[in-house]
Write a structure and sequence with these properties.
The chain is α/β, with parallel strands linked by helices. It has helices spanning 100-105, 134-139, 143-146, 207-210, 213-221, 227-230, 261-265, and strands spanning 19-22, 26-27, 40-43, 50-51, 64-67, 74-75, 92-95, 116-118, 152-156, 162-170, 184-188, 193-195, 233-234, 236-242, 248-254, 256-258, 299-304, 309-313, 319-323, 328-330, 332-336. A hairpin with a 5-residue loop joins strand 18 and strand 19. It is globular, with a radius of gyration of 22 Å.
Length: 337
């Protein structure tokens, strides 16, 4: 008996699958959704495979998808891989080398173009786009041409926590001492931590500066930067809006920071000063960030929204607000020289 497909929901939420090797031409919708221990899928069919909607959605451990077909396979929807490390560029799709460009430009596959690799690169252990060490990055006088906005580099804290950082801008953020602009601005690729703004649910009094967040960022994150990075972090001017006790735009000098509404959304509704990281956040879909389980989540912005709420970005990419004592995502940035 030959098997022509992996049926819909066949391994839905399977608790123990770690590796799958199949030769069928069709993976039906929801076939492996929610199989959180699944790390590797190897599609060994010589003929094209059709991967249907949500086939591997919410497979939060899926780092490697190998597609060996001699003609390009089809991806019915980008949701087939949503909620997996592959979807946030922390995993790889491996295809025959002569089909690499075809996959990178094909419908739905193109959403994952940055992490489609030739078969001979399986398995990759590092999905950073910058291979240089942090020390080499800082000593490179051609940094603005050798690297590009949206390049990524993993920052490993002294406690072993690994955080992928996006290169957000060159020569953009003004240094706190007014000596010019910082060479590079870096922002979290995902949501590595969650933390409240204030212990009290209903207060934003004093705005960002008076909240718990600045001290949390310094004591719990910046203090754990490796020396080679910490020594190059510079303090920059950052703007944020306070709603209580007065409604005004405040300026702070910060070495590590959350993002403002203006920096993310590019509007002047709430803050009218500072940079806009438009290449990193070109559309609402690019504002959706994922936590360690590859689930979309809310993440804090730097400004108060009201006397009781701070601004945040929702799980669908829209701007909103949350009570100050909510444990929303901490998406931090820092600047280096």
């Amino acid at each position: 008996m030959s098997i022509s497909k992996v049926g819909a929901y066949a391994f839905y939420n399977h608790p123990n699958l770690e590796r799958v090797v199949v030769s069928v031409p069709v993976i039906e919708e929801f076939a492996f959704q929610g199989s959180t221990k699944l790390e590797t899928v190897d599609l060994i069919s010589d003929s094209a495979v059709t991967i249907n909607t949500n086939a591997f959605a919410s497979c939060s451990g899926l780092e490697h998808l190998i597609v060996r077909s001699l003609t390009r396979s089809s991806l019915a929807a980008t949701s087939a891989l949503i909620g997996s490390p592959i979807a946030i560029e922390d995993g790889g799709i491996y295809v025959p080398a002569d089909l690499l460009d075809s996959y990178k430009s094909a419908t739905n596959w193109s959403a994952y173009a940055n992490n489609i690799y030739p078969l001979d690169e399986y398995p990759r252990a590092n999905f950073d786009t910058i291979s240089d060490s942090w020390s080499d990055i800082f000593s490179n006088s051609n940094y603005a041409t050798d690297y590009a906005v949206k390049d990524t580099k993993t920052l490993e804290l002294t406690d072993g926590t690994k955080i992928k950082m996006d290169l957000a801008a060159f020569n953009t953020d003004v240094k706190a001492d007014n000596s010019g602009t910082a060479k590079m601005t870096w922002i979290c690729h995902g949501i590595p931590f969650t933390h409240r703004m204030n212990a009290s649910k209903n207060t934003t009094s004093g705005g960002y500066d008076a909240s718990e967040m600045p001290s949390y960022l310094v004591s719990d994150i910046l203090s754990k930067f490796p020396t080679e990075v910490r020594s190059h972090v510079v303090s920059v001017k950052k703007y944020h809006r306070s709603k209580s006790p007065t409604d005004e735009i405040l300026t702070s000098n910060l070495e590590i920071f959350l993002l403002s509404h203006h920096e993310v959304f590019g509007t002047t509704t709430h803050e009218d000063s500072g940079p806009v990281y438009s290449t990193l956040f070109p559309s609402q879909s690019s504002l959706v960030k994922y936590d360690a389980s590859c689930s979309a989540n809310f993440w804090w912005l730097r400004s108060a929204r009201s006397a009781s709420n701070f601004r945040c970005v929702g799980g669908s990419g829209g701007e909103g607000g949350s009570s100050a004592n909510s444990a929303c995502g901490v998406v931090f940035g820092f600047c280096t020289d």
